[in-house]
Design a protein that fits this description.
359 residues; disordered N terminus; 3% strand; single chain
Length: 359
């Protein structure tokens, strides 16, 4: 059990000049009280889930949803507090979250949050793991991009982006369940219809892939035989393959233009994660000729963004009724640490392959 100590500020400040308490204005006090309540509620649901898991009690349906919402409420309330009292912005935190949104003194809370989700989303007992999960993602993404006509350099970018999607969707955990949804499962968090559509699309390009990468095609045959009647989302290879072909293969040919418009690799990764979250608006933005400036104002789409931790935290963010793609990319800061890990892992895989190919 993670032990967490309260780190709640006093409701007054000391004036350096007068050494006297300075009372907070009502909006500041309201923001502080709201944050204290949100923090208390988050701790409460963390304790409840931990007790249920430790005692092997039956968990509620979608046991992660209440945790997720409580975490978001805590972050939101802290952002409202630091907007009201900028002096409350503290030191950087180990998770890379903007200090205006998160008090580093509460790092143990997010550690426990992650630990609980790892337990609740553990792969099913019959899941078929891979010994090379990260390399699989890169190889599949690269091969699919080549089949879509990209040259070697841009196909490599596709492999890197594919790995980023894996980290964004599951933190790099293969065959994962989902404690917040009964629909999305597996290494790329796809639904049944998405997986089936991806399998059909893969069949349409497999012959061309076999022509330039027979080893990958042979691996695919092996994984198909191993999966048998298993839900393909719980075989790591087939889950990644079908998820990438379903959602991303048709966008891979846009990679040269995306790289030109957004030179930062993290931004490129974010665009493809948006294909997961808001596919149609993202494709419209890519077709606009001005990706960064493309504006979204549809309330439903803004709702999808908020449900995925974009413009979710604090009253100012939640009040936004429209945003440019540049603003959306900047608001995806919760994904930054995942994409940095993906970038690091990709470089590690590249170095390993380079060493393997040396005479």
């Amino acid at each position: 059990m993670v032990l967490v100590h309260d780190n709640i500020a006093n409701v007054t400040f000391i004036s350096a000049a007068e050494a006297q308490p300075i009372p907070l204005a009502k909006p500041q006090l309201d923001a502080l009280n709201a944050y204290e309540n949100a923090l208390s509620q988050f701790k409460s649901i963390l304790r409840e889930r931990r007790a249920q898991i430790n005692s092997k009690q039956q968990l509620p349906t979608l046991p992660g949803q209440a945790l997720y919402l409580a975490r978001n409420n805590m972050i939101s309330a802290y952002k409202d507090l630091t907007d009201a009292l900028p002096s409350k912005i503290g030191r950087p935190n180990k998770f890379g979250l903007p200090p205006a949104y998160f008090d580093a003194g509460n790092e143990p809370l997010l550690e426990e949050y992650t630990n609980l989700f790892n337990i609740m989303q553990a792969p099913p007992a019959n899941a078929q793991k891979s010994d090379t999960p990260f390399s699989d993602v890169v190889e599949l993404g690269t091969a699919i991009a080549r089949a879509k006509g990209l040259d070697a350099a841009n196909a490599e970018v596709a492999g890197r982006i594919s790995l980023a999607i894996f980290f964004a969707e599951t933190n790099g955990i293969q065959n994962m369940g989902n404690a917040r949804s009964n629909k999305y499962k597996g290494s790329l968090q796809t639904g049944v219809s998405e997986d089936e559509n991806g399998k059909r699309k893969w069949a349409a390009i497999k012959k061309s892939i076999a022509a330039f990468d027979p080893a990958l095609s042979a691996r695919d045959d092996k994984e198909e035989a191993r999966a048998g009647d298993l839900d393909r989302r719980f075989n790591h290879w087939t889950a990644v393959r079908d998820g990438l072909v379903n959602a991303h293969a048709d966008v891979f040919p846009r990679i040269p233009g995306i790289v030109k418009a957004l030179p930062n690799p993290i931004d490129q990764m974010k665009v493809f994660e948006l294909i997961q979250i808001i596919p149609s608006p993202t494709k419209s933005a890519l077709n606009s000729g001005s990706l960064a400036n493309y504006n979204i104002s549809d309330p439903t789409i803004m709702g999808f963004l908020r449900n995925n931790s974009i413009f979710t935290f604090g009253q100012v963010d939640r009040a936004k009724t429209s945003a440019s793609f540049r603003e959306i990319l900047d608001a995806m800061w919760l994904f930054d640490s995942k994409f940095e890990r993906a970038l690091s892992k990709f470089q590690e895989i590249k170095l390993q392959k380079r060493n393997e190919n040396r005479p």
